[in-house]
Amino acid sequence: MSYPTAEIGVFGGSGFYSLLEDPTEIRVDTPYGAPSAPVMYGSIGGRSVAFLPRHGTAHQYPPHMINYRANVYAMKQLGVSRIIGPNACGSLQAHVKPGDFVVCDQFVDRTSGRKDTFYDGPSTTHVSSADPYCPTMRAVAVDKARELGITVHDSGTVVVIQGPRFSTRAESRWFASQGWEVINMTQYPESYLARELEMCYCNISLITDYDAGTAGAEPVTNEEVVRVFGENNEKLKNLLYSMIPALPVERPCVCATALEGAVF
Predict the structure, then answer these.
(1) Domain boundaries in the chain?
(2) Which residues contact 126 (CB under 8 A, 6 or more apart)?
(3) Does domain 8-257 correspond to CATH entry 1.10.10.10?
(4) DSSP code string of 18-57
(5) What share of the chain is helix, strand, coil (3-state, %, to 5)?
(6) Could you read off the pLDDT of 138-182 as tens digits, one per residue?
(7) Is residue 12 very low, low, confident or very high in pLDDT (cuts 50, 70, 90)?
(8) What distance in Å separates the CA atoms of residue 95 and residue 92, rounded to the nearest whole number?
(9) How far is residue 263's CA from residue 261's CA, in Å, rounded to a whole number?
(10) Please, are residues 84 and 136 in contact by the beta-carbon 8 Å criterion?
């Protein structure tokens, strides 16, 4: 099947279900099944963009049930070379406040049982994830956030938990004691799968709450997460509208050549 070509992909997260005005709906078939929703195709600042809500249009897929491989592969089939992955996250550190943005540079995977690779054999393939987020995209995201007056942290580690439950206080204190800044349920394997297909990926974490182990924090609720994310949706959209036209076409980063030397 022939699909239109998009340069840049965006995965929407909790509370973020629209980005493009008057988009074209595209139903994409993949070898890994159907993605979470039809892909919405349009443009921003002269760049072609594909938008996909990772949880589905009605938020019907909890984090552990998302078909991450189908979502990422659908973007690849549309020709996407750069993916932006905004999401709602909790803070593990007091200085990272609700309403702040964090452009992460590392993740720690604490999930289990998720389909997290495209390479199940017969060729054994080991793709490096030492630096899992695109440095070029991260720099653009931070620069544009600062231009817009958004409070942004230019690095951070996100620990990815299985969900759908939130952390216990003990777990949260443990994560915080490691110096990790952000907690989330969807960054793995989404970001790594993009690397396996030599696509650039940039995470933008919108902090909605303090996690349970943060001193003085009340237990997080889904209602509070969605409320704070909704209050900051306009900031996120403004950042994406500013960031997308500024992304370079050239890709001299490690992402573009991730499979070199990876196949045995």
Answers:
(1) 8-257
(2) 262, 264
(3) no
(4) ---SSPEEE----TT---SSPEEEEEETTEEEEEEETTTT
(5) 30, 25, 50
(6) 999 999 999 999 999 999 999 999 999 999 999 999 999 999 999
(7) confident
(8) 9
(9) 6
(10) no
- How confident is the prediction for the chain on average, in pLDDT? 93
pTM across the whole model: 0.93
Q: Does the annotation count 211 as an active-site position? A: yes
Exactly one of 22, 109, 120, 211 is catalytic; name it: 211
How deeply is 256 buried, as exposed, middle or buried, from its count of CB atoms within 10 A (0-12, 13-18, 19+)?
middle
Joined tokens for residue 175: 């994560």
The amino acid at 237: K
Q: Which two tokens stand for residue 35?
A: 């993605």
Q: Active site includes 105?
A: no
H/E segment holding residue 171: helix 169-177
Given a contact cutoff of 8 angstroms between Cβ atoms, the answer to whether 44 and 146 are in contact is no
